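TA notes, week 10

Several of you asked for a full example with nothing omitted. So below is the full record: structure tokens for the whole chain, then the designed sequence directly under it. When grading your own attempts, check the secondary structure regions first.
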């Protein structure tokens, strides 16, 4: 569902926007980048959930890889919820060995975060855009490192956290422009286009993915205390199977030419 219904549906608009952004309105370009976040999330989280499900059929338990990252209240929290297996590996084998002897030196701690996140960017590909998109999120660790700012006192986000959630989402939104664009120049041109604040031309097709994303976001929010989204095991059997059938129908309705997973590029 996350791959076909969310990622691939958003991906059609994303590909069009990034190929033609110089001729599109700011609204269209903004929506294209909004869709890219959910394309990337749906693509890789969907792949991870498929792997977890298949492994369970054979009696294996794979590690959880995503934990509702778009409800994060800070960038440090975001990195504990996005691509968790990768970030945990870099934390254990890169960050911790670097920082453990200088844990009281705040400048060194920040530098350790910067090096680790830049290496995560480099892991995705030897491009400055990827290193910038991921590595420079280290600067959002500064309040915690230098000013002892406490965040995330509650385990799960609630409605009072909405402003912080939106702030973090927008930070990720702008950083991932560099993740998707072909080079730094295109990234800045894309950013400039967004801030032209133009409305026309518009196309009704550009709003179609929103009809799928709004229910998806609501479902994720309502299941944010569950291990995995769409935890239906507590529902009565009849309703559970009705949902299964509807989702299966939706997948086949939206299934087009099979699209490769984005993360297979890395």
């Amino acid at each position: 569902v996350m791959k076909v219904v969310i990622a691939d549906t958003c991906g059609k608009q994303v590909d069009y926007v990034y190929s033609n952004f110089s001729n599109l309105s700011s609204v269209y370009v903004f929506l294209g980048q909004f869709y890219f976040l959910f394309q990337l999330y749906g693509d890789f989280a969907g792949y991870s959930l498929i792997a977890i499900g298949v492994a369970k059929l054979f009696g294996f338990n794979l590690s959880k890889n995503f934990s509702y990252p778009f409800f994060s209240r800070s960038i440090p929290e975001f990195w504990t919820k996005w691509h968790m297996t990768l970030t945990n590996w870099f934390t254990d084998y890169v960050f911790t060995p670097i920082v453990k002897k200088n844990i009281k030196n705040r400048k060194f701690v920040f530098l350790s975060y910067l090096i680790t996140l830049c290496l995560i960017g480099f892991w995705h590909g030897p491009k400055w855009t990827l290193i910038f998109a991921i590595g420079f999120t280290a600067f959002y660790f500064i309040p915690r490192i230098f000013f002892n700012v406490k965040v995330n006192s509650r385990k799960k986000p609630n409605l009072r956290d909405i402003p912080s959630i939106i702030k973090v989402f927008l930070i990720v939104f702008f950083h991932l422009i560099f993740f998707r664009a072909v080079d730094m120049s295109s990234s800045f041109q894309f950013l400039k286009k967004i801030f032209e604040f133009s409305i026309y031309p518009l196309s009704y097709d550009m709003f179609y993915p929103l009809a799928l994303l709004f229910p998806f976001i609501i479902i994720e929010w309502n299941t944010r205390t569950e291990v995995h989204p769409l935890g239906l095991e507590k529902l009565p059997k009849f309703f559970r199977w009705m949902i299964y059938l509807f989702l299966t129908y939706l997948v086949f309705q939206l299934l087009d030419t099979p699209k490769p997973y984005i993360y297979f590029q890395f």
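The mean pLDDT is 89. Use that as a sanity check on your answer.
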